[in-house]
Amino acid sequence: MLTISAEHIKPSQRRLVTHTRTIAPQAEQLVRGRFGALPSIHLGLFGDADRWAETTAQAELSLVPETANSIRYQHQQDVWKSRRKRAGITILASAGVAILINLRKLRTPRDINETLVHELTHGYQLGSTQAREEHAAYLRHCWNVAALPRREFKKYERLVNRHETEARNAEALASQLPT
After folding, report:
1. Which of 45, 80, 103, 133 has its CA 20 to 30 A from that of 87?
2. Are the beta carbons of 100 and 46 closer than 8 angstroms?
3. For the chain, what is the mean pLDDT?
4. Which residues pair with 43 in a beta bridge?
5. From residue 59, how far is each of 65, 90, 94 by CA, in Å?
6. Per its UniProt entry, which superkingdom is the organism in (predicted)?
7. Residue 4, SS3?
């Protein structure tokens, strides 16, 4: 199931929001057809990069509530610094995944199409129970809550790299979507 919300949308971004609401179900079908079942997905569109960064940091940190305050602060700063560079992110949610799109980084319907297909592919990759558990363990390790054995940590980082390559390659599916 795909739900969509939009926050802090500027008048110049309304056409991108309308376009996203129109093509999102088609993009979901394309990704599902290529990879298989997708988890429940909430797609959040943000017209303000600061609000996107704040929501992203809060959502990620909520996955590991026992994270130390100093690490929480550093993560919030890292996300804040990346807000002008990143178009979207896929995060584990209580039911499925949340895809948060930073509309300040996107200008055209084609940008939306490619970003949406890319992030939906990450949604597929994080959809299984095992993938969710592995990702949560990785975050706990990165935020010094629970250490992973070095071999498992390196193995997961290689998997993340493969997932990113797979998502970039899947962006070619976006050419099948209307612009």
Report:
1. 133
2. yes
3. 97
4. 4, 99
5. 10, 10, 10
6. Bacteria
7. strand
* Dihedral sign from CA coordinates of 58, 137, 129, 112: positive
The pair of structure tokens assigned to 89 is 């992110």
- The string of pLDDT tens digits covering residues 68-78 is 999 999 999 99
- Six-digit token pair at 139? 């975050």
95 pLDDT band (50/70/90 cuts)? Answer: confident
Residues in the chain: 179
Tokens of 66: 């026992």
126 pLDDT band, cuts 50/70/90, is: very high
Kind of pairing between the strands at 41-46 and 2-7:
parallel
**150-170 and 109-125 are packed helices; what angle lies between their axes, rounded to 10 degrees?**
140
The pLDDT of residue 79: 96
Q: Which amino acid is at 79?
A: V
Q: What is the pTM of this model?
A: 0.96
Alpha carbon distance 179, 175 (integer Å): 9
Count structural domains, the chain.
1
Amino acid at position 14, single letter: R
